[in-house]
C-alpha cells in the first residue's frame, strides 16, 4: 500500500510517500516509489496514530457508560490507535483473569491496541498491594486511577515493586482528606456557590510522588496535572534528575474554572478545571518539556448519570474523540506549533511506556497512521460521537480537524464519509 500526503511525524516532515507492507512501514520518502498510490491524501496531514495514555472503556462493570467495543470505535474515530485503559472497572483490573478478559475482548473486536494499567492495590482500596510480579507481563504500568493509595507506606512499597518489575506508576495524585468539592476552589467557586477543591489536594500528592520517585528511583508518571504548584514541583524534580514524567488532559488546556458559570455537570471533572494562572503554567510546562504527554482521560457517563446538579454529578468528561481536534484548537489559541503538541500524543507516550515501533512514521515502525484534514470542521453531537458517553462540554460545538481515515498496522479502522 502507498499513501501520499503531507507527513508530520518526529522522523519525517513534509510531502512524501509511505510504503506499507505486512502492517509495517517499509519506507518513507519524498520520491514517488514504484507502484500506484492507494491513498491520496494530498493537502491533508498524515500523522502517526495517537497513543492515548489515559482512558476508561468501563468494561467490565459499567457497560451502560461504555464498552470495549464502543470505546474502540470512538478511539478510531478520534485518530487514536493505542489506548491505555485505567483499572477502575468492576471488578477492578487488579487480577489476571479480568485483565486477560479485557485484552481478549479487545482482540476479538480487532480495532485499536488496548493496553492496561493494572491496579496498585486490590479493589483500588489503597490497603493491600496487588501481585506486581504476576501482573507485570500484562500491563504497561500500575495505577489506582480515580484515586491513589493515601498511605505513604503503601505508596512507597508500590513504587519499589514497580521499580523491581521495571514498570511506571501512573499516579492520580490526590490527597482525599483535602479534596471533596465539585470545582477548583477560588474566586469563581465562591462566586458561583459551588463547593471548591483546593489546589493543595493535588500538589501535596505530587510532592509526595516526586520524593518517592527520588527515594526509590522508580519512574512515577503523574496523571492529569491541573495546578500551577504541581507543574512547578514536577519541573524542580526533573531538574534534580528525579525520574518523574507528567501528563495533562486536553480539557484542562481549553476550559477553565470560570467556564462553570453554567454549573454544567459536563464540565465537572477530577482534577477540576484550572484557574487562569494554573492553565498558563500548564501551557508553560508543555512548552518547556515538564509535561511530556497530553491524554484524554476519556471518562464516559450516561446522560442519566450526568443529568443532575453539579454537586451530585460524577466527575468525568468523554474525550477520546475530541483529543486530536483540541490539539489544533490549543495550537491556534496559544500559538504552539501543532507538531509540538503532536509529539505529546505520539512519540512521547511511546517512549515513556516503552512501546517499541509506535508513535512515529519511520521504516520498520507499525503502520498506525491517521489522515487528518486540519482545515475542515465537524460538529460534536450525540450522533457524531461513537462513544456512549456524550458528556462533553464540546457538545453542540464545531471543532477544527476532521479525521478522514485511521489505519492500524496498515488496516483501515475508520473512514470518514
Ligand atoms: O474525572 C474523572 N473521571 N477523573 C478521574 O480520575 C476518574 C474518571 C472516571 O473514571 O470517571
Automatic annotation (TrEMBL):
The Dihydroorotase catalytic domain, residue ranges: 44-229
Any GO MF annotation of the entry: allantoinase activity
Example GO biological process: purine nucleobase catabolic process
Cofactor: Zn(2+)
Record bears the keyword Hydrolase: yes
Keyword Zinc-finger: no
InterPro entries (UniProt xref): Amidohydro_3 (IPR013108), DHOase (IPR004722), DHOase/Allantoinase_Hydrolase (IPR050138), DHOase_cat (IPR024403), Dihydroorotase_CS (IPR002195), Metal-dep_hydrolase_composite (IPR011059), Metal_Hydrolase (IPR032466)
Keyword annotations: Hydrolase, Metal-binding, Pyrimidine biosynthesis, Zinc
Top-rank taxon: Archaea
The protein's name: Dihydroorotase
Lineage, uppermost ranks: Archaea, Methanobacteriati, Methanobacteriota, Thermococci, Thermococcales
Amino acid at each position: 500500500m502507498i499513501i501520499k500526503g503531507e507527513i508530520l511525524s518526529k522522523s519525517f516532515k513534509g510531502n512524501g510517500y509511505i510504503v506499507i507492507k505486512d502492517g509495517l512501514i517499509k519506507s518513507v520518502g519524498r520520491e514517488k516509489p514504484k507502484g500506484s498510490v492507494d491513498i491520496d491524501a494530498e493537502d491533508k496531514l498524515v500523522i502517526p496514530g495517537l497513543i492515548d495514555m489515559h482512558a476508561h472503556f468501563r468494561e467490565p462493570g459499567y457497560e451502560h457508560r461504555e464498552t470495549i467495543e464502543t470505546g474502540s470505535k470512538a478511539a478510531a474515530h478520534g485518530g487514536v490507535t493505542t489506548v491505555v485503559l485505567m483499572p477502575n472497572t468492576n471488578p477492578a483490573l487488579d487480577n489476571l483473569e479480568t485483565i486477560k478478559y479485557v485484552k481478549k475482548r479487545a482482540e476479538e473486536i480487532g480495532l485499536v491496541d488496548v493496553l492496561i494499567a493494572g491496579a496498585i492495590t486490590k479493589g483500588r482500596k489503597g490497603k493491600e498491594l496487588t501481585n506486581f510480579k504476576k501482573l507485570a507481563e500484562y500491563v504497561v504500568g500500575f495505577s489506582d486511577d480515580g484515586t491513589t493509595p493515601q498511605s505513604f507506606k503503601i505508596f512507597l512499597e508500590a513504587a519499589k515493586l514497580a521499580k523491581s518489575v521495571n514498570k511506571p506508576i501512573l499516579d492520580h495524585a490526590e490527597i482525599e482528606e483535602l479534596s471533596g468539592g465539585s470545582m477548583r476552589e477560588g474566586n469563581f467557586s465562591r462566586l458561583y456557590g459551588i463547593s471548591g477543591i483546593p489546589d493543595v489536594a493535588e500538589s501535596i500528592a505530587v510532592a509526595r510522588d516526586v520524593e518517592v520517585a527520588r527515594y526509590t528511583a522508580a519512574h512515577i508518571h503523574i496523571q492529569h496535572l491541573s495546578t500551577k504548584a504541581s507543574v512547578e514541583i514536577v519541573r524542580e524534580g526533573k531538574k534534580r534528575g528525579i525520574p518523574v514524567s507528567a501528563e495533562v488532559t486536553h480539557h484542562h488546556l481549553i476550559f477553565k474554572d470560570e467556564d462553570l458559570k453554567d454549573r454544567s455537570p459536563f464540565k465537572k471533572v477530577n482534577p477540576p478545571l484550572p484557574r487562569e494562572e494554573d492553565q498558563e503554567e500548564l501551557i508553560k510546562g508543555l512548552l518547556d518539556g515538564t509535561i511530556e504527554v497530553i491524554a484524554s482521560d476519556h471518562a464516559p457517563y450516561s446522560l442519566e448519570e450526568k443529568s443532575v446538579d453539579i454537586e451530585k454529578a460524577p466527575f468525568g468528561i468523554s474525550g477520546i474523540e475530541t483529543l486530536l481536534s483540541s490539539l489544533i484548537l490549543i495550537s491556534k489559541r496559544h500559538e504552539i506549533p501543532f507538531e509540538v503538541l503532536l509529539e505529546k500524543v505520539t512519540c512521547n507516550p511511546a517512549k515513556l511506556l516503552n512501546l517499541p515501533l509506535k508513535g512515529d512514521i519511520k521504516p520498520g515502525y507499525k503502520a498506525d497512521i491517521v489522515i487528518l484534514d486540519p482545515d475542515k470542521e465537524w460538529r460534536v453531537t450525540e450522533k457524531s460521537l461513537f462513544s456512549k458517553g456524550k458528556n462533553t462540554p464540546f457538545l453542540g460545538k464545531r471543532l477544527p480537524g476532521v479525521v478522514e481515515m485511521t489505519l492500524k498496522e496498515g488496516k483501515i479502522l475508520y473512514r470518514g464519509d
